[in-house]
Design goal:
8 helices, 7-stranded antiparallel β-sheet, single chain, about 20% strand, about 25% helix, alpha+beta
Length: about 325
């Protein structure tokens, strides 16, 4: 083969083969300061908000640890089970979707088809407090460049959640509608999108993500106090093994900042589903996606006001 033809083909295959690694490298690059002047300005503002203070006492550190632990919530971590068959029910990502005989494929406000990403069959999960003990949730997102999220007003996104509380009677499994050239999806592996991948749950308990708005509210002004390193080590301990697992319950995971805050979506305090970048799905530069619901709505089994949000580095 002519080298002028072979070399470009080789480069394309290498890029495709190392897409995840390239995404992670880009993410790390983006964490670097864009410009020294901007970084210096950020540093001045940070130090003004967090002046040098007296050392944190043992009692203050222990009090924070106890408060942090009190926020823990039970979760069901979801791990791939490729040997389990894909069917109408069952917990999985991707694959065909069960719809009733007279039911149209979910669409956005302009009539375009949404993208099916996952479903959770609560009958298969170990019981989670306040969550259903049976029934099926199906999760759909948009096909635009932000996957249906609205970052300015997360409540106005186009993602949808369909709730099937009873047995699936009649209906049929339908494949994803064909995509046009200008439509996007977060799938890293097209086969999983088409045929699906079953998931099984592992019971767990999750403390909040370090980006949780409540942590920032409690710690603002104290980040430069001597002794804070012990709290920092607690927050950024990634040894729990959940950094790259989908899960139900627990807390959302963010790669940058929590979009919630005092008086701003702070009542969206339950995680219906967290979808991570795991080699099957990839959110931007190896980011995180989450469907959040208010506690009272979850108790009422009202899934009409779920928020979909994602971010990446």
């Amino acid at each position: 083969m002519n080298l002028y033809i072979f070399i470009p083909i080789l480069v394309v295959f290498m890029v495709l083969g190392f897409r995840r690694e390239i995404g992670e490298w880009i993410g790390r690059r983006r964490l670097r300061p864009v410009a020294p002047a901007a970084n210096q300005e950020w540093r001045r503002e940070f130090e003004a908000r967090n002046p040098d203070g007296p050392p944190m006492t043992r009692a203050q550190i222990d009090e924070f640890k106890a408060w942090f632990a009190s926020l823990a919530l039970p979760a069901a971590e979801l791990v791939p089970a490729p040997d389990r068959p894909v069917r109408a029910q069952g917990t999985r990502i991707g694959g065909p979707v069960w719809l009733a005989d007279d039911e149209a494929w979910p669409a956005d406000s302009e009539g375009g088809p949404l993208e099916f990403v996952a479903q959770v069959d609560f009958a298969e999960l170990d019981p989670l407090p306040d969550f259903p003990e049976a029934g099926l949730l199906q999760f759909f997102i948009g096909r635009g460049d932000v996957f249906g999220a609205d970052f300015d007003d997360p409540a106005r996104g186009s993602a949808r959640v369909l709730w099937r509380p009873g047995a699936l009677v009649g209906g049929s499994l339908r494949p994803q509608p064909a995509s046009t050239d200008d439509e996007l999806n977060p799938w890293e592996r097209g086969k999983v999108r088409e045929t699906g991948l079953s998931l099984v749950d592992l019971p767990a308990v999750h403390e909040p993500d370090p980006h949780d708005w409540r942590i920032h509210e409690r710690l603002e002004g104290q980040y430069r106090r001597p002794g804070f390193e012990e709290i920092d080590d607690l927050l950024w301990n990634d040894d729990d093994g959940r950094s790259r697992r989908h899960h139900v319950g627990g807390h959302p995971v963010f790669t940058q900042d929590d979009f919630r805050g005092p008086g701003r979506f702070d009542d969206y305090d339950r995680t219906l589903l967290r979808l991570t970048s795991d080699g099957n799905l990839i959110w931007g530069d190896v980011g995180e996606a989450v469907f959040l619901i208010r506690h009272n709505d979850l108790l009422a089994r009202d899934f009409s006001s779920v928020i979909f949000y994602w971010d990446c580095t």
